[in-house]
Write a structure and sequence with these properties.
With about 170 residues, the chain is an alpha+beta fold. The protein is about 25% helix and about 30% strand. Strands 1-2-4-5-6-3 form a 6-stranded antiparallel β-sheet.
Amino acid sequence: MTDSPTGVDRDPDPRPLREDPPAESLRTRLWRHGFNLLPAYRGTGARVDHIGADWRFVRVRIPCNWRTRNGVGTIFGGSLYGAIDPLYMTMLRRVLGDEFTVWDKSASVEFLEPGRDTLYAECELPAAETTAIRDALAPGESTDREYLVSLVDDEGVVHAACEKTLYVRRDER
């Protein structure tokens, strides 16, 4: 996708869904249920299916049903984006802790194929990523981090790719 109009300069990840996601804890299971009850997230029609115990893995599901379907019978683009919008920001905030400020800065979505079946997105946050952020930022300094999320069907076909840019700042305390 080098010449894409959205600026996404790498190919979407066509990996199949993980069969062995990291285990959930009681705490992340409760967070998952709370997330799914949050009116703003519930309105997307998506559901958080899994949150790893260490907040480094999240899987969401976007069904093609009466709540998410648009006028031509495919999943509404707003539902696709809304399903993944808060994920990396929430993951980074939970992993980095209160000494960091994390905000969404920008996003771009490339719709590659209409979604006529349930789609899934998996977000992973490697330990090396958060270690690099901690090591790179002194108090008061900030950085932008980019994450690519693919929305795939059961067979791993990529229907949309979203690139998120997050602003991360180590607070002065």
